[in-house]
């Protein structure tokens, strides 16, 4: 007889391009992250963040989402030049491979290299990016952010290098 825990299979995660109907959920994920992150001051109110997630955003950015059972667990936004301005997950999605799925999609879409910034105090994200092959460019560190928290510029050199 099989143990019932062995019979249960993990829920499949699905990666796809974001659609206009996903944008309010993506805005909520970043807003909830800001509200829940003790060290990160809010410099823009929830409504202003919501206002950034308009359908025209999908014309200027490549956006991926990962969902499970129809619920979006996280998203990644990427510019044409390979800059990743956003990779955010719901707290319950952390440690389940969602961030890696999103980053792998960005690497596949832009194999020549990616760049992103990360708050210096976001040690979990910093460890994740380093594990995924990103290295800091110390000369591009920004200590003058609106949040008052230095950001580190991280670069992934691409699969061909």
Main β sheet profile: 4 strands, antiparallel
The arrangement of helices and strands along the chain is HEHHHEEEEHEHEE
The overall strand count is 8
CATH architectural grouping: 3-Layer(aba) Sandwich
Principal-axes shape call: globular
Tally of DSSP helical segments? 6
Residue share in helices? 25-40%
Beta-strand content bin: 15-25%
Alpha-beta classification: alpha+beta
Lateral arrangement of strands in the main beta sheet: 1-2-3-5
Global Rg: 17 Å
CATH superfamily: Gcn5-related N-acetyltransferase (GNAT)
* Average pLDDT number: 92
> What fold name goes in the CATH topology slot?
Aminopeptidase
Q: Regions with pLDDT < 50 over 5+ consecutive residues?
A: 1-6
List keywords for this structure.
161 residues; alpha+beta; Aminopeptidase; four-stranded antiparallel sheet; four-stranded mixed sheet; 6 helices; 31% helix; globular
Q: How would you describe this protein?
A:
With 161 residues, the chain is of the alpha+beta class. The protein has a single domain, classed as Gcn5-related N-acetyltransferase (GNAT) (Aminopeptidase). The protein has six helices and eight strands, in the order H-E-H-H-H-E-E-E-E-H-E-H-E-E. The protein has helices at residues 4-7, 23-36, 46-52, 57-60, 98-109, 123-131; strands spanning 14-17, 62-68, 71-78, 83-84, 86-89, 114-119, 135-136, 151-156. The chain has a four-stranded antiparallel sheet, sandwiched between helices. A four-stranded mixed sheet has the order 4-6-8-7, covered by helices on one side. A hairpin with a 2-residue loop joins strand 2 and strand 3.
